[in-house]
Amino acid sequence: MFAARSRIGRVTPHDLAGRLQRGDAPTIVDTRTATDRGRFGVIAGSIHVPRTLVEWHLDPSNGYRHAAVTSFEQPLVLVCNGGYSSSLAAESLLDLGFSGVADLIGGIRAWVAAGFAVVEPDHSHLDI
Question: Which domains does the chain have, with CATH numbers?
Fold first, then answer.
């Protein structure tokens, strides 16, 4: 975990909320299961790419990539439940060639604890 976190960017819930309001919003990639997303809600505008599919669905050179990810330079913030698996996923994206990846410190739990809203999921990774 230490090695991964020493390589990636990390953002607090307040940092991310500020970026969302300022208009320099990164693409938020929710790596949680569909069950967790349904139970705990999602950050509005986030895309769903489960952890097991991150490398496959986010690589812009892949014919099966998520339509919201178009370049290796695109800013991405990965979100999981507690901020652990998202750190590992973000590091994996660095290894693929992404340059602007970060994860949300504390995950969706920290987002909610900081008082930020969540919404019901409006899609799943199966919709791409």
Answer: 2-127 (3.40.250.10)
